[in-house]
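User: Can you write out an input/output pair for a complex, sequences first and structure second?

Assistant: Here is one pair. Inputs:
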Amino acid sequence: MYAQLKLELEADDIDYKKSSNLQGILMENIDTEYAGILHGNQLNPYSQCLIRENGKNIWCIKTLTEEAYEQIIQPMSEVKSVVFKKSGRDVGVTKWQMDRCEERELLDEFYDTSCPKYLDIQFMSPTAFKQDGRYVIYPDLRLIYGSLMRKYSAVSGELDMIDEDLLNQLTDHSSITRYRLQTILFPMEKTNITGFVGNISIRVHGPETLARYVRLLLRFGEFSGVGIKTGMGMGAMRYNRREPK
Amino acid sequence: MYAQLKLELEADDIDYKKSSNLQGILMENIDTEYAGILHGNQLNPYSQCLIRENGKNIWCIKTLTEEAYEQIIQPMSEVKSVVFKKSGRDVGVTKWQMDRCEERELLDEFYDTSCPKYLDIQFMSPTAFKQDGRYVIYPDLRLIYGSLMRKYSAVSGELDMIDEDLLNQLTDHSSITRYRLQTILFPMEKTNITGFVGNISIRVHGPETLARYVRLLLRFGEFSGVGIKTGMGMGAMRYNRREPK
């Protein structure tokens, strides 16, 4: 089960730059031993970010496994306020909203529901990739698919493997046809990382199965995030469904 | 000599989408024989575009050789109004402004003036490249440098050759560190081409000579345009000088 908890924060003057502080707050609110396990993980079973929605600050906490749900979302859904350590500031939580999605749901959609050729993605928090030790600050489709496949296979328990042939197929058969993007700095404790935010449209040509697989990855990506430092608040994405014409 | 003629058009309701019509108007205003020669050229000694500056529509006509200056800029600087053929609409020209730049000026700057590590480019009209028969709609540095080197060498009379080693050096030693870009449609007679507009910052590392060479290409690019269909109004770029700190 994938899950998302949205906490509406009673504060107008904070923004995504506080995301890495929120990760600290999250860690303080969950079981210490489990926090230690997470700390050692290569691929996190959770992601979190702070987004602005209808003029409100929404802290989104997402989990990818039952265990992470119980260990993270459940305790966090009881939280009445978050305290920023440095400033001592106490910010109230005014709304809680939970969304769940079964793994099965995405697979059923893959098998049963036709898929448009054009798929829209919104990158909602600074997104970046790492390749050969270098940061990549634009939406390279191979890196997007690769990141999501790795996260997906890690969660499915099929180890941290990706199918190179499938990745090649996906990359060869898709292209970005439209975008509106900009770089933006993501502050961490000691440094800034550059990431990008904005929108892209992907066109998948060739067999429809490929488009369906991309859709599955993107829907999974809404919970996992994409690229680097999704636990700190980077890489939050949304798959924007197109209305059937 | 590189030259630019700016014509201020007395019309609020036209925009860059009229660029390819303006190319037609340009052709009608110059010597028929020379227009024929231009038509057969692979790499144009001119470029033109319609941009918006301080709320005014400015038609920029740029040339890269003495001959093109005499054959294009000179007659165009006498033009009092432009007539759009289809609609029959007659748009007055209210201002003329000429800028000139000697080849020597760019070379002197290359040899004598130090260059910052960061170079900013603005893509002012829809820009795109063609690679292996496919359109590329993002600012790939190799394609930017390659396009400008090709245009530069064609104008310098060194045939249409580019120095692959130098191109590799430039590409290996530069990266985009910041951008704000979006795709936009460029309408031609029968079809639309997607291009991008916006800003990028390039960081050139390694020997300063490389940065100086990039600067030379970018300054040349202000006259030549970059990428495909610069004669129709695509690929207009500006090198934004950073003020020394």
